[in-house]
Amino acid sequence: MLLVLSAEHRAHLGCLPRAGGGAIGELGRLALEQLRRGAAPRACETAARKLNIGVDTIQHGVEGLVYLLTESSKLMISEVDFQDSIHVLGFSDELNKSLLQLYLDNRKEIRSILGELAPRLPSYHSLEWRLDVQLASRSLRQQIKPAVTMKLHLNQNEDQTAQVLQTDPATLLHLIQQLEQALGEMKMNHCRRIVRNMK
To answer: pLDDT tens, 141-156?
Structure first.
């Protein structure tokens, strides 16, 4: 699987040859620091003075590296695919090897950082349900009005919450059909590939 780079990201990564092969280590360190702690303009200014390069060049190079490393780590791109992805940039072999080594050395740490940034969504615990049927009222002596009431128990950050939902059987059947269709689509090869790359 190749990583497709937009024109903007190619332009940002285009700053790397101007920085020189020796600067990749410094820019890689700044990119990892930006992932861990957020943007650090002072660190970019210090690196610009140290490498005798413009601050804008450093910032664009770091932004390009952050995108390249995070997207490659998210997709768990293999060594060969990573090389093919950066080959289109037209860098020298030395620069390509430096980028590959930077990716291989840091992809596990980047995945763990991205995992910590992911939102914690509630998970299913249990479901209680009840079927209520109104057979008559004062104004209508013969009516049948069914309603399904559900109490959904969820776990979120070791706390339990409950949501009460009420619907009619027709809507519930439609919802079941939609969920079954979604589960069926998850068995397709394309979806399996996406899910495998998300882990």
So the answer is: 788 889 999 999 999 8
With the C-alpha atoms ordered 56, 57, 63, 64, is the resulting torsion angle positive or negative? Answer: positive
Split at pLDDT 50, 70, 90, the class of 26 is confident
Helix (H, G, I), strand (E, B) or coil at 157: coil
**Of 197, 23, 37, nearest to 99 (Cα)?**
23
What Cα–Cα distance (Å) separates residue 146 from each residue in 66, 103, 143, 152, 177? 55, 59, 10, 19, 19
pTM above 0.70, yes or no: no
Please state, as a whole number, how many other Cβ atoms lie within 10 Å of the Cβ of residue 76.
14
Phi-psi category of 68—alpha, beta or left, where left has phi over 0 and alpha has psi -120 to 50? alpha
Rounded to the nearest angstrom, the gap between the alpha carbon of residue 170 and the centroid of all alpha carbons in its chain is: 35
Determine the distance from the C-alpha atom of residue 89 to the mean position of all C-alpha atoms in its chain, rounded to a whole number: 24
